[in-house]
Amino acid sequence: MLGPLIDSLIRVIRSDDTWLELSGAPLPVEDVRRWAIRPDCGAVVVFCGTTRDHAGDRVGVTELHYEAYEAHVVPRLEALVAEARIAWPAIRAVAALHRTGKVALGEEAVVVAVSSAHRSEAFAAAAHLIDRLKATVPLWKEEVAPDGREWSPTASVIEEPT
């Protein structure tokens, strides 16, 4: 087994069973899906959050920009994965990757993948991870539209992890 790859800015943690990343580049969704496949797992759930042209009542969004408190993103993702592994011990591979910078419409801003022997654990853990990621990881999006730029009105105060 290769040891985990951890970059100096803590933007990536990658091992045989965990892939966490904060990236300014397009997310490698198909690579994540293939990486999550395991011979002992019959389920791989992949959730992709893609950018869209509206948010709440605001229409005509043309692009989004994501910012992060970078030093805290991957450590918080790591804590969420540990939490999920306790709640669903049957899960095997777990990935959570998020973009920063400009993200064009239709591109993935976030991807979460979970594999397990059975679908119920994979679905539950993936749903939990994306919900907790949005609530506890310090990431913010700015919407660009013909009428100007503004921070997403759906942004919430970041909760401290429990």
UniProtKB/TrEMBL annotation:
GO biological process, one term: Mo-molybdopterin cofactor biosynthetic process
Pfam entry (one): MoaE
InterPro entries listed in its UniProt record: MoaE_sf, Mopterin_biosynth_MoaE
Highest taxon of source: Bacteria
Identification of the protein by name: Molybdopterin synthase, large subunit
